[in-house]
Amino acid sequence: MPYLLGIDIGTSGTKTLICDDKGRVLATATAEHPIHTPKPGWSEQDPRDWWKSTCAATKAVLKKAKAKPAEIKGIGLSGQMHGSVFLADGPKPLRRALLWNDQRTAEQCAQITEKAGGREALIELVANPALTGFTAPKILWVRQHEPRVYEKTKHILLPKDYVRYLMTGEYATEVSDASGTLLLDVVNRRWSDRLLSLLDIDKALLPRMHESPEVTGTLTHSAARELGLVGGIPVVGGGGDQAASAVGNGIVSSGVVSATMGTSGVVFAHSDAPTRDPQGRVHTMCHAVPGKWSVFGCVLAAGGSFQWFRNQLGQAEVAAAKKKGVDPYELLVAQAAEAPAGSEGLFFLPYLTGERCPHADPNARGAWIGITSRTTRAMLIRALLEGVTFAMRDAIEIMRGMGIPITQVRASGGGARSAFWRQLQADIYNAPIMLTNSSEGGAYGVALLAGVGTGVWDSVEAACRATIRQTGRLSPRRKLAALYDKQYAIYRKLYFDLKERFAEIAGQC
């Protein structure tokens, strides 16, 4: 039986998944890798750590699935978007990669906007404004601040494409991930010669372009030995983590939207045509479905806000969870469920690492607002979950305003594993939440893409029809939806009330 291997190089670790040609998941495995924050607002990783975790997780998933290496017929790659890997010749990076949540490039974003002829002109060129998370401003930052590194650079790769290079020896990428570089002509699905010229970036530095299900190369024998596989396995283009996760959730037709709570939070909509937001509040990018596009908004610290609370303020739950053999998040959510809806007027702004959607502001800060003498710890936790979900609703409201149909929202990620948080999303979005049999996100999505690329299914849409089905539905509760509508109206004003103060605070750091 042919098996398909999906590999997702995330921010905190690499996840691997093996499924069969019916889409049934045999096993998953994860291996962590470290993150470095040399200065406030900076975020970096050593790309070699991605390879180590990929090798460890691949060997682990083969063992768990009891699969023989020769049974793997195709490999798909997903990964965190926007990260920049600078290479000379050979696999050793010239420096650590700057990640998607690195905020050092505000000056370079302004330079790109000016060179393009303004924000509207830039959006016309590449469908998106210049944001600190994107790859192009990172390239300019390295060129300006580390000229010796840039002079030695012969190749610039995205995270998953660095792993692809180590697997196949090929410098290749695909359209969904390339969309997040700010260097892709998204409408025409090719590198933007015009913007590259304006920025004086040599096109030869960039990898060869593919559609997501296309085979980009085959596994070399040396890489296969490190991974515990056999040489010659086809490796398809795959997808950036958001497009790959969308495929894994069946978001391949209009009207179906996903809300994914990972470290970041993403609301993702399929689009049959490139649909730009003139204000650039949400992103328009190529989908992993050939000839299709996507619109999505990204909250930088969604699950990341909850993780911060667990790490910094949830030591008691972490200790108790070890004794009980449960996840500490379960104990924290149980406390949140005891607090009243709306947390008695307490609000949480989840801008722990700045924000992207709808506020492209690296200076934005996290905050609880509305603490009183009655505020309890449970209210702090519930307000955090509510605040993160309000931030996700920002993207939904923008899409509604753009005329993008939203008939259902499919929840995935950490926010989908909790029954409480699933219902909270239905109430705050004021939309039905659909559950499916698919919960593995990007790794599953690129395993399906590998199946398309190797002939298991005829198309991405056919792969999703054959493997993904609805398993449940949650409807918004009228009274709570009405309450959250009123709270959301207040929430969306708070950023603007504090915007100037955030800038002043950032100036003191």
First-residue to last-residue Cα separation: 57 Å
Q: Please, what is the average pLDDT?
A: 95
Number of helices: 19
The radius of gyration is: 22 Å
Structural class: alpha+beta
Task: Describe the fold and architecture.
This protein has 509 residues and is an alpha+beta fold. It has 19 helices and 24 strands. Strand 10 and strand 11 form a beta hairpin. The longest helix is centred in the C-terminal third of the chain and has 30 residues, at 478-507.
Secondary structure topology:
Elements: E1 3-9, E2 13-20, E3 25-32, E4 44-45, H1 47-65, E5 72-79, E6 85-87, E7 97-98, H2 106-116, H3 119-126, H4 135-145, H5 147-152, E8 155-157, H6 159-168, E9 172-174, H7 175-178, E10 184-185, E11 190-191, H8 193-199, E12 208-210, E13 215-218, H9 221-227, E14 234-236, E15 239-240, H10 241-248, E16 255-261, E17 265-271, E18 283-286, E19 293-299, H11 303-313, H12 315-324, H13 328-338, E20 347-349, E21 367-369, H14 377-401, E22 406-413, H15 414-417, H16 419-429, E23 433-436, H17 441-453, H18 460-467, E24 470-474, H19 478-507
